[in-house]
């Protein structure tokens, strides 16, 4: 069987999935922790009988959600993309769903072919918590002036060294420069949305950006204080890391 498979050209497939991060310890496979990648690879192996390495577009942490997450995988199995989509949705846990499956060029890579990513962060801004948003939005009971925060957040936009907005970690050794293409803060009733697109993100970068904006809302950092924090290149000058529950990987651009 292995000899036959070696004679078959591998197809490169791109699967777009969505998942509830509350159920997982992030994307990447870990020892003694259930992850999205483990659930994905297990379902794929049941369908194809093959154990293969899947390439995820990003490393999401424990409790972080994904409205859109992209995975590329090379298969020798002849199953058509539409049938694979249906089969995966049968075998995956209900907290994960495949939205699309298409064949792509052999050199496509879910992570390295990515041009930019968009995250959103949800804040339930009300004195009373919403039980239905528990685990899906940060509950923040104090007033938030979205106009002030949106104006302050524009200092993130551009190419900067974001060392101050990264949790120190050996996986981030090297260039800490990223280009933020846009950052917006908007309100829909009691729900405040922070949306950011960049060519890449450092470890906990979005959550620290959000935590810093909340410190501005509290008057502990001046509204024009973000440029100075960027210039410091020191994590201790930025705000705290906001909880994972409000963060969603929203879109991947190729």
Distance between the termini: 36 Å
Note the total helix count: 6
What would you call the shape?
A: globular
Low-pLDDT segments, ≥5 res: 1-7
CATH fold name of the largest domain, please?
Answer: Alpha-Beta Plaits
Q: How many independent structural domains? A: 2
Concise synopsis of the structure shown:
It is built from six helices and ten strands; from the N terminus they run H-E-H-E-E-H-E-E-E-H-E-E-E-H-H-E. The chain is α+β, with helices and mostly antiparallel strands. It folds into two domains: 2-104, 2-Layer Sandwich (Alpha-Beta Plaits), CATH 3.30.70.580; 116-253, Pseudouridine synthase I, catalytic domain, C-terminal subdomain (Alpha-Beta Plaits).
What attributes does this structure have?
single chain, 254 residues, alpha+beta, Alpha-Beta Plaits, 2 domains, 10-stranded mixed beta sheet, 6 helices, 10 strands
Description:
Helix 2 packs across helix 3 and helix 4 (146-153) crosses helix 5. This protein has helices at residues 2-7, 36-48, 81-91, 146-153, 205-217, 226-232, and strands at residues 11-19, 55-56, 65-75, 96-104, 116-124, 138-139, 158-161, 177-188, 191-198, 247-253. Strand 8 (177-188) and strand 9 form a beta hairpin. The longest helix is centred in the N-terminal third of the chain and has 13 residues, at 36-48. The two termini are 36 Å apart. The chain is built from six helices and ten strands, in the order αβαββαβββαβββααβ. The chain is an alpha+beta fold. Strands 1, 2, 3, 4, 5, 6, 7, 8, 9 and 10 form a ten-stranded mixed β-sheet that branches. It folds into two domains: 2-104, 2-Layer Sandwich (Alpha-Beta Plaits), CATH 3.30.70; 116-253, Pseudouridine synthase I, catalytic domain, C-terminal subdomain (Alpha-Beta Plaits, 2-Layer Sandwich).
